[in-house]
């Protein structure tokens, strides 16, 4: 089973940074899904208010099941994150690990 890395890049509305940091902190505490190895948020160097969330999954099955396992609070926080970002700035990437055989 290949591992999967899912990333979300976006630009944050500058006046929303404090609220954003609060939401991300709560998300980190809530993301404990089976098969989710890690969840981290990074600020892009040299680009003010640009962030990237990186999710690492143990398998493609864990990645596919991730949305099904979220509770209502997680969905509320993700919706709130969308409200804090600059419109049309979000980009998604899904990376599948190559088979090493």
Q: How confident is the prediction overall: mean pLDDT?
A: 90
CATH architecture: 2-Layer Sandwich
Q: What is the approximate shape?
A: globular
CATH topology: Alpha-Beta Plaits
Number of helices: 3
Strand content: 25-35%
SSE order: EHEEHHE
Class by helix and strand content? alpha+beta
What Rg, in angstroms, do the CA atoms define?
14 Å
Helix content: 25-40%
Q: Short summary of the structure?
A:
By secondary structure, the chain is of the alpha+beta class. The protein has three helices and four strands; from the N terminus they run βαββααβ.
Describe the structure.
- The structure is a single chain.
- With 101 residues, the chain is of the alpha+beta class.
- The chain has one domain: Alpha-Beta Plaits.
- Strands 2-3-1-4 form a four-stranded antiparallel β-sheet.
- Strand 2 and strand 3 form a beta hairpin.
- Helix 1 packs antiparallel against helix 3.
- The model has no long low-confidence stretch (mean pLDDT 90).
């Amino acid at each position: 089973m290949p591992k999967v890395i899912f990333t979300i890049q976006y630009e944050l509305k500058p006046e929303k940074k404090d609220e954003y940091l609060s939401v991300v902190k709560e998300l980190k505490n809530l993301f404990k899904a089976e098969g989710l190895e890690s969840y981290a948020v990074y600020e892009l160097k040299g680009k003010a208010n640009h962030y990237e969330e990186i999710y690492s999954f143990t398998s493609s099955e864990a990645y596919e099941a991730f949305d099904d396992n979220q509770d209502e609070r997680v969905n509320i926080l993700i919706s709130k994150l969308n409200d804090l970002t600059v419109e049309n700035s979000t980009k998604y990437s899904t990376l599948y690990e190559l088979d090493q055989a």
